[in-house]
Amino acid sequence: MTARVTPYLNFGGNAREAMEFYHSVFGGTLDITTYADLHRAEDAGQENLVAHSMLKGAVGVALMGSDTTTPEAHGPGGSFSVALGGDETHLTAYWHRLSDGGTVTVPFAKSAWGALHGQCVDRFGTSWLVNVTASSPS
Q1: Are the C-beta atoms of residues 31 and 53 closer than 8 Å to each other?
Q2: pTM confidence score
Q3: For residue 107, what pLDDT is reported?
Q4: Model confidence pLDDT, tens digit, residues 86-104
């Protein structure tokens, strides 16, 4: 049996912008379905909100996300972080893109356990934990 965990991110009206940003960071393919595509817009103005999106990044990163249709259903994620592990080359580039316009909570630097490590909250309120777990390919 194989299991996979994919973070599903909720946004308060800016899911398209956020997912397009993550697509620019991680590459790969991005599919976006709006409420209008599903003929499910409950209120005027919800037609262009994202009902579901799926990012399949170029190097194994996967994220899903949508806009919530009620304000109380969206709360930026203080209770979790999306963890990224991999080689220094990829993760250093991801770090710079994710932290740009966000808040660095732990600077990306050599940690007590020897790995490069950093934590940030991006401009969309998603918390990221970035930890180099492999040498860069030669």
Answers
A1: yes
A2: 0.84
A3: 96
A4: 999 999 999 999 999 999 9
SS (H, E, C) 65-132: EEECCCHHHCCCCCCCCEEEEEEHHHHHHHHHHHHCCCEEEEEEEECCCCCEEEEEECCCCCEEEEEE
Reported for 113-121, long-range contacts at CB under 8 A and 24+ positions apart, including other chains, are 116/88, 116/91, 116/92, 119/81, 120/95, 121/76
The 10s digit of each residue's pLDDT in 42-90 is 667 788 899 999 999 988 899 999 998 766 556 665 567 899 999 999 9
CATH H-level, domain 82-134: superfamily: 2,3-Dihydroxybiphenyl 1,2-Dioxygenase, domain 1 (3.10.180.10)
